[in-house]
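We were asked to recover a plausible sequence for a given structure. The inputs and outputs are reproduced exactly as logged, with field labels preserved.

PROBLEM: sequence recovery
POSITIONS: 149
GIVEN STRUCTURE:
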């Protein structure tokens, strides 16, 4: 389970808006010099994000909560968003090139059509998955009374 801590900023109809701050673990990673995540983290500079999740732990505004998403769900969402469109782009490009007798224009047309089909198929599969790829509210991180005094 991949987890992130956030703060509840609003409650609406059995769901809560949770605000998280993007953090980077680049300073402790051994691959930091060759990783694109470091560049992305530096570009966003700790920007706040908000996500709407089902309020399964009765959180209220101001509570610090832990969100989680299953690793398999994250992998599945990555496949829908990246792998399916990329594979269809390559297959349709090769097919367009082969069927046209080597014309580059048809390879380009095939690539664009394959990419579009991949996004369309991914969106359809995501719609049928329900909330399988959504983060879940795991717990409220309550501060014990008297702490910090």
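RECOVERED SEQUENCE:
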């Amino acid at each position: 389970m991949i987890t992130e801590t956030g703060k509840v900023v609003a409650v609406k109809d059995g769901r809560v808006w949770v605000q998280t701050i993007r953090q980077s673990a680049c300073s402790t990673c051994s691959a930091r010099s060759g990783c694109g995540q470091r560049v992305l983290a530096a570009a966003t500079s700790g920007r706040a994000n908000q996500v709407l999740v089902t309020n399964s732990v009765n959180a209220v505004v101001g509570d610090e909560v832990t969100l989680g998403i299953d690793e398999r769900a994250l992998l599945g969402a990555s496949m829908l968003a990246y792998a399916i469109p990329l594979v269809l782009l390559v297959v349709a490009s090769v097919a367009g090139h082969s069927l046209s007798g080597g014309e580059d224009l048809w390879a380009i047309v095939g690539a664009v059509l394959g990419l579009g089909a991949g996004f369309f198929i991914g969106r359809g599969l995501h719609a049928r998955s329900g909330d399988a790829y959504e983060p879940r509210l795991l717990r409220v991180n309550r501060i014990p009374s008297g702490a910090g005094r």
